[in-house]
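Trying the structure run again after the queue cleared.
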Amino acid sequence: SWIRKVPSSKDPDRFHHFFGRIEREFVTPGTRLIFNSLSIMEHNWGRDAVKAFFGHVCPALYAYQTLAYWTMAKNAHPKEFCALIEHMTQVVIDLTKQENKNFLWIKKAGGRYNPQTYTRREYTVDGLNIEIH
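Done. Tokens:
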């Protein structure tokens, strides 16, 4: 497996072409893809184009047994858009900061039913190390 940062593009057609190349040439089970922010993509392409793209790519990447990481700016999208994105993904993680403390909350973890999975937890970052408390 390999890790590749997938750049956002102001031109959706160019990005689709780039992604098609990755899909054909590089994606194998276990591949990890890091996408730029869906919020930036929405700003550049428009909401409908992002929904169509995500609706195609997310299930395809799941079928290829890959891991794809996406970010979204908090409170920057209508609830309907967020609900659609969350519905299509296997895992949704919410990161927040309150009173100088970092919190991680797993909102969705497809196929995982242990209630502790969904407990909001504090985490700390020390350099490249992340510790969940």
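The chain has four helices and seven strands. Worth checking whether this holds up in the mutant runs.
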